[in-house]
Known about the structure:
Number of strands: 3
Order of helices and strands: HHHEEEH
Strand order of the largest sheet: 1-2-3
Oligomer: single chain
Number of domains: 2
Radius of gyration: 17 Å
Largest sheet: 3 strands, antiparallel
Shape: flat
Low-confidence stretches: none
Helix content: 25-40%
Amino acid sequence: MLDCKEAATPMATNYYLDLDEAGKCVDQKMYRGMIGSFLYFTSSRLGIMHNVCLYARFQSSPKESHLTTVKRILKYLEGTKDLGLWYPSGTNIFLDGYSDSDFGGCKLDRNSTSGTCHLLGSSLISWHSKKQACVALSTVEAEYIAAGSCCA
């Protein structure tokens, strides 16, 4: 992976992960180790958090298709190694919170995913991405659940 081709995004835009029951199994320990390393990276690289959490759902039985998508994160990190968080001094202090959700984004169980972020001034101080515990029946309901998780 040292001389890999860089990727502009951590995941292909129109690719959906599934259980891939017919796919070839890969080493579970290696897959879990990669996910754990990426979870460490999420403390400073917000752009991979959603993808890492999505790929972590397949740790019990990872397939080659899952490993290929995980390797794409490595390609993305290689292409964006100059990016990071920046906290400038002398800015106004105000707290803003934002939330969003994808209605029925998980094709396996139709659960939505909530995402939130909080800014102190113009600096990002926290973020969160989590699969919702219940199945939302509408886009509005999914957004309300996401807004509630932003304030909690």
